[in-house]
Specification:
The structure holds three protein chains of three kinds. By secondary structure, chain B is α/β, with parallel strands linked by helices. Chain B is built from two helices and eight strands. Chain B is elongated and about 85 Å long. By secondary structure, chain C is mainly α. Chain C contains nine helices and no strands. The termini of chain C are far apart. The chains are: A alpha+beta, B alpha/beta, C mainly alpha.
């Protein structure tokens, strides 16, 4: 029961999480974007702040044309977020134990599917997210690890506060990227991981990694929905 | 001769009593003499929702360890859960995830581990970094209602 | 009025004196460790208080285990949690019912017998004649019974627990059809050696000390008459039962009560 409810909430929560990235505003109201960005000494916090502001700008400027050309909006969001999110690492964590057995092609295909699934499903829903305020919270202490840091953020909409935590990982190239998201206490990476695991075990996909990879969007969208079977087979 | 029957009956009684104790220890408390060497790992959670010492740590539904103790880190506002994992369960990858789930009608909490993709494995004293605290039903419903409304 | 006060004062002093006598008796006998030559005295007493209590203890244990299993089953089956019968049974028995009920039975069966026996020895002046022959009645009569009590009650408790669990198995598994594996594994998952078994046995050691002490003292302090023996026997059972239940509450509070 709890698990089903949890699954239902995750879709909603994800939308909020991405919305958070999009409509982020500097904590110091009225201050310019540059000033706000300089507030954080910690690189991961600065990146979240910067990306949030860039997305906010994109949303604002796209209002005029987004309805006519949603694909262009999608591409621009893609271009903006791709450098900031470690999709490959994210997807690797979701595949977890199956990643070790998967071929290079399967790994790449899943990373692509995973990325476009996330972006396609949620990017467009963000445009409707208007009257919110997003605050990147300062670090609550010195980082516990050199290659990993949590960035806390609050999304305030209509009197509700949704806490979001971005798990930032330091890549080999020295760039901090988002590796996982925890929204309102729901660890998205782990939730996807267990969904992936049960999908591979699910008779509907016949234990076939390829079919799970190809039907990933369906696995996430509707756990156990009847149409998933037909689509997965197609 | 009378004294001898008394002695025999007392001997049998004491033996029965000791055997009863042994039965309780072995059969009822389930002590096992198999390879029970363990190693300790920890994980930080934002909310453990009443997870208790000695709670199960399971992987794919199989109990592979126990919670040894739980601390609170007031600086970060997190619970640090220390777990003893049986070595014979096999190694766990460093990017293993830990979730707190609920079991049964009484709603006792346990830790569920989800192994990851890394080749390196967790060793004594290591920390699980990817965690999912207990999902408190009240919070979930609250979020759901808010999201439906918006 | 002064008369009443005087009598009250006398009563209080009498109580105090009897507590003092009881303590001296206890100290004097308990520190008498049985010598190898006197071991047969203890063995004979273990036979009297332990072996002879075995049947009533086992009979009660079996029916209590069976009844508990039945009650747990009817309640838990409503939630589809029949498998938890084993856990409930084991924890309740090991922690509370095992030590307490065995001690109550022990007080009724063995405690009263000890009191009556020593009381009769006193009223037929056997104790006095022992003293005159230079035999210390504390060593000869009291100490073996105390030691026999300390040894027997924990053993009886362990046997009680096993038989009661067997009673639960007969009703739960054989009759009501709880799955055997789930019954036992639920039990072994929850029951801990020290937390459940160890503390339960520790309780029974406390009860053993209290019950045998009361029984021996009441016998030793009997008013030497037929009526006196009857009164002393009754007192042993009543005092022991009340002390067991009160002590159990305190022990549970201090052992499990981190509220």
């Amino acid at each position: 029961m709890t698990e089903r409810l949890g699954a239902m909430c995750i879709s909603a929560a994800l939308a909020i999480g991405f919305a958070g990235l999009v409509v982020a505003v500097p904590q110091a109201a009225g201050a310019g974007a540059e000033v706000a960005a300089a507030e954080f000494e910690s690189a991961p916090h600065r990146i979240v702040q910067e990306k949030s502001e860039e997305l906010l700008d994109l949303i604002e400027t796209s209002r005029a044309w987004v309805d006519e050309d949603p694909d262009r909006f999608f591409d621009e969001v893609d271009a903006l977020l791709t450098p900031a999110i470690d999709f490959a690492g994210f997807a690797r964590g979701v595949m977890s134990v199956h990643y070790r057995k998967a071929t290079a092609d399967q790994r790449r295909r899943f990373a692509d599917n995973f990325k476009s699934g996330l972006l396609r499903t949620y990017a467009l829903s963000l445009t409707s997210f208007k009257d919110g305020e997003v605050v990147v919270l300062p670090p609550d202490g010195p980082p516990r690890r050199p290659d990993r840091q949590n960035v806390r953020m609050e999304i305030r909409t209509g009197g509700n506060v949704h806490p979001v935590i971005y798990t930032m990982r330091l890549g080999k190239d020295g760039v901090w990227r988002i590796g996982n998201i925890v929204i309102a206490g729901v660890n998205i990476g782990l939730t996807f991981r267990s969904q992936f695991k049960s999908a591979v075990a699910d008779a509907r996909y016949g234990g076939d990694l390829d079919r799970v990879i190809d039907a990933w969007a369906l696995v996430v969208a509707e756990e156990g929905a009847p149409e998933a079977k037909e689509n997965a087979g197609a | 001769m009378r004294m001898r029957t008394v002695e025999i009956s007392v001997g049998a009684f004491v033996l029965a009593g000791i055997l009863a104790l042994v039965f309780l220890v072995v059969r009822v408390s389930g002590i096992n003499f198999e390879d029970s060497s363990t190693y300790s790992i920890s994980a930080r959670f934002d909310d453990v929702a009443g997870l208790k010492r000695r709670a199960k740590v399971s992987l794919a539904g199989v109990v592979i360890g126990r919670v040894s103790h739980i601390q609170v880190d007031t600086e970060y506002g997190e619970a640090v859960v220390h777990m003893e994992i049986e070595r014979r369960a096999g190694p766990l990858s460093t990017d293993t995830g830990a979730q707190i789930l609920t079991e049964g009608i009484i709603g006792s909490r346990y830790v569920s581990l989800l192994p990851g993709a890394d080749e390196e494995v967790l060793d004594d004293g290591d920390e699980i970094l990817d965690t999912q605290g207990a999902l408190v039903l009240e919070n979930l419903i609250g979020d759901l209602v808010t999201n439906l409304g918006s | 009025m002064p008369d009443l006060l005087l009598r009250l004062g006398h009563r209080a002093l009498n109580r105090m004196a009897s507590l003092g006598r009881a303590s001296m008796l206890w100290v004097a006998s308990v520190f008498w460790l049985p010598k190898p030559a006197d071991l047969y005295l203890v063995v004979r007493q273990i036979h009297n208080v332990g072996v002879l209590s075995l049947i009533i203890v086992m009979l009660s244990a079996f029916s209590i285990g069976a009844v508990l299993a039945l009650q747990f089953y009817t309640q838990l089956a409503r939630f589809g949690a029949q498998d938890a019968v084993g856990v409930g049974l084991a924890v309740v028995l090991l922690r509370e019912l095992g030590p307490v009920i065995t001690a109550l039975l022990f007080a009724g069966r063995a405690g009263s017998a000890i009191t009556a026996e020593i009381g009769l020895m006193k009223s037929t002046e056997q104790l006095t004649s022992m003293e005159m022959m230079g035999v210390d009645p504390l060593r000869r009569v009291v100490a073996p019974r105390l030691w026999a009590g300390f040894i027997s009650l924990p053993l009886l408790t362990a046997i009680f627990n096993v038989v009661a669990i067997y009673g639960g198995v007969v009703v739960g598994i054989e009759w009501l059809g709880i799955e055997r594996g789930a019954f036992w594994s639920g039990m072994t998952d929850v029951v801990e050696i020290w937390e459940d078994i160890g503390k339960g046995m520790l309780k029974s050691v406390f009860f053993a000390v209290v019950v045998t002490w009361i029984a021996v003292y009441q016998g030793y302090d009997t008013y030497p008459s037929a009526e006196g023996i009857g009164l002393a026997t009754t007192r042993t059972v009543v005092y022991s039962s009340v002390m067991i239940l009160a002590l159990d509450f305190l022990l549970t509070l201090s052992m499990y009560g981190d509220f």
